[in-house]
Design goal:
Length: 282
Amino acid sequence: MVADSLPAYGWSRKAHFKLVLVNQTDDNKSVVKETHQKFNGGYRSWGSLFLNLSDFHDSKQGYLVNNTCIIEAHINVQASSHRESSKQEDVNEASDESSTIGSFDSNETETSDLTLRDLLDLESLRDEEAVYVPLLEEACVWHPSLIRSQSKRTQRFKSWAFSSLGQVLHILKTSKVKDMNEEVSNNLRGLWEELVMASGFNLDWLKPYVESALSMEKHLERVLKVNELKGSIVDLETKMKKLRGELAEAEVEFEETKKVMNELSKGYIEIDLNADLSYNVF
């Protein structure tokens, strides 16, 4: 579209788009993000994280080479196959706009423009909750149903649902395998079960990551046990080496002592050390 051909306020388009951050050294490492989204004249601009900035700046990673990065954009706008149908939709949209100024009758239209900041008062969040916001915003961008599912909920319920989801995302994003001990795993498991049962979110996209993280607890226990046994083996090997050295020294001392004894035993007549000396004055 050019500026003169832009439709009036209230226009909307559904589009499927894909963005690709090309890895210039290994195509298999290229980062792909794709989604469906409805755009309109009042839609807010947004973005999404592709990868850590440090990885992007590292030329060895292959995303930024010679100060150049390559981004591919693929966009498919869903348009009506019949011109008359399209015109009728425009008429209906214009009619809806004039009759419902400041409000919307369609749930889809009402929620398509909503963002996390429309649902929650982010400024009132505690510091420990504020760290979840970037993760939640990115999740809502790629999974708009998260917003739609909470649009009619009470403020308290929305705060609980997104706070719990933020905690889960934060654990998955910041934890390492070594961190998945019993306490962390139980916390993640409890949050996840509550979200699945009561939040109203469709979390099928997140389930594999949670299950993988929870499986790390048993794996971590096994790894820690193996590492403990490895330490014991090292200690035992050190002890065995020391004992072998002491045994070798004892064997040498034994042979030397035996040799001296044999030398002294030549011409030796064994006597009873408790016998009398046979002294008699008469």
